[in-house]
Amino acid sequence: MATLSDVATMAGVSVSAVSRVLTGAADARVSDATRKRITDAARELDYRPNYAARALKFSRTNVVALVVPDLTNAIVSELMRGVEDEGYEKKYMVLLARAESELEEYALPRLIKEGRIDGALVQAADAMEPAELSEQIDSRLPVVYVNSNHPADGGYVDLEDELGTRIATRHLIGQGHKRIAFVGGLPSSVTGRRREQGFRDEMASARLPVDEHFVTSLGYELVVGRAAVGPLLDADARPTAIVVANINAAFGVLLELRSRGVSVPHDISVVAIHDAWTADNSWPPLTTVKMPRYELGRRAMAALYDRIHGGTVPRLVVSDPAPQLIIRESTVAPRP
Domain named HTH lacI-type: which ranges (predicted)? Predict the structure, then answer.
């Protein structure tokens, strides 16, 4: 394995010059020609940095953790891809950890105590209150919360949840629907509250009443999406359309409607927040509002990098690109 000394010998420079150039040190005052000789030599020798030694020297590991509630969730993949792409550009590796049940008290605190990571991106579980998050995460560790609950003093990067739900609701109103239901997240979820507010605001803008029997707040999982359907169908006048605050719950809604003999979209139209490859493979294919989760991942990783290196506490909302309506076969105009 090539060493710094090998690279220095081939490039005809000092070891310290090689070290400064290859680590991107701000004080690496070398000419462009010398820098090129060093990088060419490192490439030819297939030089790989000794990250263990660098961690000891700089008190950094160049590793961050991405903590999400569920790694099997289809919409998590775009977030992870954005984090990894930005991390690669900034020479950081990304460890994945789940924030579920027993692992919530195991994975992240252990990574922190053992000094394995420089910081963490955390998408907190919806049921976790800000006070619990403060207790579980060492305040000395740079942390950025990703579109989820966070302590009052926590840095965050969020999505335009209200706008996403307004777009979904506006789509149904534009098709002629007036009796629209909302299947929402938990009351403890900040994204759930924002998405419900977006639904209510768009209904108010269209001067349409919100039937409180048509609003549920059970969560984002498939099983609770199924559970939300029963009360909606038991109402005196059924809704003609449903806005679902999360695509995973929407799959539950589709399954339950089908099991009860309700035709989607001819009896009830369904539109969901977030998009994934699974939306094309449901039946019927699901109309969604695609939120910029890839860009969310990149912005969150960039914000964490700035917090690690400069102490900046981010308060960011990703607005570019804007949420995008993707129309598939689960929404049509209501029957006369």
Answer: 2-58
> 44-54 burial by CB neighbour count: b if 16+ within 10 A, else e?
ebebeeeeeee
What's the pLDDT tens digit per position in 107-161? 566 666 666 788 889 888 887 777 666 666 656 788 899 999 888 778 899 999 9
Strands (E), the chain: 63-68, 93-98, 119-122, 143-146, 155-159, 180-184, 215-217, 241-244, 269-273, 287-290, 315-318, 324-326
Q: What is the pTM of this model?
A: 0.80
Spatial distance between the Cα atoms of 61 and 63, rounded to a whole number of angstroms: 5
For residue 22, pLDDT beyond 80: no
Q: Which domains does the chain have, with CATH numbers?
A: 4-49 (1.10.260), 63-159+293-318 (3.40.50.2300), 161-291 (3.40.50.2300)
286: which DSSP letter? P
